[in-house]
């Protein structure tokens, strides 16, 4: 199938969809017995609203001069929350720089994400503790790190899996294709999760690939699955199965979550210069949150009080992260000597001493 | 917490300014956190700026249409104390937003001075902190340093980077207190060698020339046309001119044209003696009394007649419709240098005018333009332009199309030159015509034919007039 067919409500062919944009529960061959509890669906909805609120607050803070840049996830909430909630505690995530929703699912404090884009640190969470790697700005580089990590897990005999994120643009990177080869050849316990949001900055999907991305997996010798990336049910189930397969020794899976980046690539670009408004409007009708909201309301799984309480929670969260972001202290210049190397070295010590002396040469105290 | 001022942030990695497109609030409005205040257009995008605080708008500092430097306050908002705490819009001691009372870019403890996070703009945040050193006791600004004859400047003056010398030689010079600019270079490619530096050190380095003492531009240069009086900054050795008004418009139009329409320029040199004779004779006619008869008038006539024969040069590229719109009329633009800069007013339906009518229209248009009173409407809707670079004494150029037009003709100076006429080399009055055309629309064949028609008219106006009309 091609992306064009996503224009219709029901994707054709192999693309897995379990919840239509109209909030209608549907099935897909092989997925007939999938079920979600009301609690689980309300949980997805809460995640969605909070993550979107974090994201809009990030954009607002950037526009107010509080962040240097922000990469919005707007429109990709289902792809991120659906896959993030499919993880088991022992699984390890390698994100790009846009996985705010997955970070949320892993329990990362959103202020840590804001701090990175504010430029006060490079990510203030401990990857080993959170099982969530640092944001990787270099496109696709994390796919190789993830594959190596998965091969390490395999050699440790661990029954965990790695979930590696990347985008449609990264699919054209050498790193990603090399990662596919290694993961396939060594049967690594890894799930490659491609959020195909249709745009690599200003380059459309049609300039990245001729064939649908999920079909690439076949050439590398492992299965590829295409899923409606704005359908949290489908994303969750497909990811869960792929992770389970990896843990059970069945090797890698490539998941192509077909979604759409509703905002700019980052706050620095202007998408109206390279894509047409009607395309954005078309995807607005496929909003991942709205369909879950409709599903909850139509099936009597949530009342107005629930929706109101989630909105209120989102507002409180936004105010809290805004306040804490603005109060983040700027790091002193000496901090760069602390965390780059695990152990001190004579060269590092000398450079640190020289820099200290240099800073002391200015009037007024510093450092 | 009282009155707070929101400064224009850098909304996209390294921007230095933004244009205020539209205010979405006005004084007296009550705003909430993240309510959009204003639309700003930067070099990268049009963005809406949301309010960092809840409160009441007190004052807008920037008018719509104005360009504002990053870091400049654009709006004042009265923030009630309780709201300030509740919505957490304003932070604690490390907040980047200053109270108006504490205004003035006082550096904070951490060295950050402005509302900005991000990379580029340094106007408010990159002031050099003074070094703690003996020289600092003199308390003189850095610019004064090079005039001192003390041969021990610790920091090399910025200008020394223009002197060629290898890094070890630079270090040696610094160690010996030699100003590289005072050294006569003998090394390869005019570089300063190690020996040059040691020799200079032994001879005793001479004082460096003052920043503007030597040859080069004086400190101030009087105004010239649209270029205002230039005052050179001693340290930066640059003079800065704000880009606004006609300059801004011209720059935008030229860039738009140069990067959308592929230009081709052709030249032809012609004997304009007969045209000059005709100009002289026309001046005596009562029909032309009170109006200026110039070679430009006849070139304009030539263009109008040639357009009839090659209407394709009088057209425009309609990108949206993917069509070429060939005009059935000619609004003839004349590029004019004015005190405000370059303006291109046009004569409406110039092809419908008689020659005296055209002369009067051209004169009126240039008079108004020179006085700087050309209304914007007169500059819109042009279909073909003539630029008379000859008045500046030059022969030709490669003119850039006025956006939305397919052709522009440059008319050079008319000079008496040796020319082969009737088999003899004789002095003739010669000029050069340069035509640029939009190659999306006009090919070399059509462009050449048009230019040749204009040239033929200039060489022999009377016969062409009879032949073509």
| Measured distance between first and last alpha carbons of chain B | 79 Å
Helix content of chain B: 10-25%
Low-confidence parts of chain A, pLDDT < 50 over ≥5 residues? Answer: 1-9
CATH T-level fold name of the largest domain in chain A = Rossmann fold
Overall description:
The complex is a heterodimer of chains A (367) and B (469). Mean pLDDT of chain A is 93; it is low at 1-9. Chain A has helices at 38-63, 77-84, 100-105, 110-118, 127-130, 141-156, 174-185, 216-220, 232-247, 277-284, 288-298, 304-326, 346-360, and strands spanning 92-94, 162-167, 190-196, 199-200, 203-204, 224-228, 253-258. With 367 residues, chain A is α/β, with parallel strands linked by helices. Chain A is built from 13 helices and seven strands. Chain A folds into two domains: 3-326, Thiamin diphosphate (ThDP)-binding fold, Pyr/PP domains (Rossmann fold), CATH 3.40.50.970; 332-367. Chain B is α+β, with helices and mostly antiparallel strands and 469 residues long. Chain B folds into three domains: 1-128, RNA polymerase II/Efflux pump adaptor protein, barrel-sandwich hybrid domain (OB fold (Dihydrolipoamide Acetyltransferase, E2P)); 145-203, E3-binding domain (Dihydrolipoamide Transferase, Irregular); 246-468, Chloramphenicol acetyltransferase-like domain (Chloramphenicol Acetyltransferase). In chain B, strands 11, 14, 15, 16, 17, 18, 19 and 20 form an eight-stranded mixed beta sheet that branches. In chain B, a hairpin with a 2-residue loop joins strand 14 (332-338) and strand 15. In chain B, helix 2 packs parallel to helix 3 (194-203), helix 6 (295-309) crosses helix 8 and helix 8 crosses helix 9 (461-468). The model of chain B is unreliable at 84-126, 134-161 and 205-215 (pLDDT under 50). The chains are: A alpha/beta (367), B alpha+beta (469). At the A-B interface, helix 1 and helix 12 of A face strand 5 of B.
């Amino acid at each position: 199938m091609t992306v064009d067919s996503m224009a219709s409500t029901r994707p054709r062919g192999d693309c897995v969809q379990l919840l239509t944009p109209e909030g209608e529960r549907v099935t897909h061959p092989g997925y007939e017995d999938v079920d979600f509890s009301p609690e689980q669906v309300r949980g997805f909805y809460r995640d969605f609203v909070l993550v979107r609120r974090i994201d809009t607050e990030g954009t607002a803070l950037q526009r107010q001069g509080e962040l240097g840049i922000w990469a919005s996830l707007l429109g990709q909430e289902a792809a991120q929350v659906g896959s993030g909630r499919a993880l088991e505690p022992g699984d390890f995530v390698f994100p790009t720089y846009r996985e705010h929703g997955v970070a949320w699912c892993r329990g990362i404090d959103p202020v840590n994400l804001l701090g990175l884009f504010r430029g006060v640190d490079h990510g203030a969470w401990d990857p080993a503790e959170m099982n969530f790697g640092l944001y990787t700005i270099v496109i696709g580089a994390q796919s190789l790190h993830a594959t190596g990590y998965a091969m390490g897990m395999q050699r440790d005999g661990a029954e965990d899996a790695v979930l590696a994120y990347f985008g449609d643009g990264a699919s054209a990177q050498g790193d990603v294709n090399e990662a596919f080869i290694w993961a396939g050849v060594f049967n690594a316990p890894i799930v490659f999760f491609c959020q195909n949001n249709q745009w690599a900055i200003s380059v459309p999907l049609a300039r990245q690939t001729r064939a649908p991305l999920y079909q690439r997996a076949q050439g590398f010798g492992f299965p590829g699955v295409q899923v409606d990336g704005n359908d949290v049910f489908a994303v969750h189930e497909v990811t869960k199965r792929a992770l389970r397969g990896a843990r059970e020794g069945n090797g890698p899976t490539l998941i192509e979550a077909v979604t759409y980046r509703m905002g700019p690539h980052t706050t620095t670009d202007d998408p109206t210069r390279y894509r047409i408004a009607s395309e954005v409007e078309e995807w607005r009708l496929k909003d991942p949150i709205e369909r879950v909201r409709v599903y909850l309301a139509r099936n009597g799984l949530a009342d107005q009080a629930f929706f109101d309480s989630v909105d209120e929670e989102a507002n409180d969260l936004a105010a809290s992260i805004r306040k804490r972001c603005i109060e983040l202290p700027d790091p002193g210049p000496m901090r760069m000597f602390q965390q780059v190397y695990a152990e001190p070295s004579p060269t590092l010590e000398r450079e640190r001493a020289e820099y200290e002396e240099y800073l002391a040469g200015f009037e007024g105290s510093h450092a | 917490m009282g009155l707070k001022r929101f400064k224009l942030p850098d909304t996209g990695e390294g921007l230095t300014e933004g244009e205020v497109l539209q205010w979405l609030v006005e004084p007296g409005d009550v705003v909430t956190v993240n309510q959009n205040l204003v639309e700003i257009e930067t070099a990268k995008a049009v963005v809406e700026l949301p309010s960092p605080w809840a409160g009441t708008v007190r004052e807008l500092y920037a008018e719509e249409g104005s360009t504002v430097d990053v870091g400049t306050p654009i709006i004042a908002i009265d923030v009630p104390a309780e709201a300030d705490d509740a919505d957490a819009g304003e932070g604690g001691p490390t907040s980047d937003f200053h109270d108006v009372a504490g205004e003035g870019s006082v550096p904070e403890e951490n060295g950050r001075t402005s509302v900005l996070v991000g990379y580029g703009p340094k106007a408010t945040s990159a002031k050099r902190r003074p070094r703690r050193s003996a020289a600092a006791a003199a308390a003189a600004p850095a610019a004064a340093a090079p005039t001192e004859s003390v041969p021990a400047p610790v920091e090399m003056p910025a200008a020394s980077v223009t002197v060629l010398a290898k890094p070890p030689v630079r270090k040696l010079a610094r160690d010996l207190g030699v100003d590289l600019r005072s050294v006569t270079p003998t090394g390869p490619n005019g570089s300063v060698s190690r020996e040059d530096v040691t020799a200079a050190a032994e001879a005793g380095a001479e004082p460096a020339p003052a920043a503007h003492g030597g040859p080069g531009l004086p400190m101030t240069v009087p105004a010239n046309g649209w270029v205002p009086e230039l005052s050179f900054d001693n340290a930066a050795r640059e003079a800065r001119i704000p880009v606004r008004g006609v300059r801004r418009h011209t720059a935008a139009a030229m860039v738009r044209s140069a990067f959308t329409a592929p230009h081709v320029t052709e030249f032809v040199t012609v004997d304009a003696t007969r045209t000059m004779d005709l100009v002289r004779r026309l001046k005596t006619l009562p029909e032309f009394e009170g109006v200026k008869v110039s070679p430009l008038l006849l070139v304009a006539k030539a263009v109008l007649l040639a357009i009839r024969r090659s209407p394709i040069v009088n057209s425009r590229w309609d990108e949206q419709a993917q069509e070429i719109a060939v005009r059935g009329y000619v609004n003839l633009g004349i590029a004019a240098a004015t005190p405000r800069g370059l303006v291109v007013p046009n004569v409406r339906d110039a092809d419908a005018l008689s020659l005296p009518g055209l002369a009067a229209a051209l004169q009126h248009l240039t008079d108004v333009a020179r006085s700087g009173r050309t209304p914007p409407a007169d500059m819109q809707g042009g279909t073909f332009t003539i630029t008379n670079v000859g008045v500046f004494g030059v022969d030709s150029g490669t003119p850039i199309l006025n956006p939305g037009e397919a052709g522009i003709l440059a008319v050079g100076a008319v000079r008496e030159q040796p020319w082969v006429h009737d088999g003899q080399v004789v002095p003739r009055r010669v000029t050069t015509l340069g035509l640029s055309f939009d190659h999306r629309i006009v090919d070399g064949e059509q462009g050449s034919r048009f230019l040749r028609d204009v040239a033929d008219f200039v060489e022999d106006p009377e016969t062409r007039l009879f032949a073509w009309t």
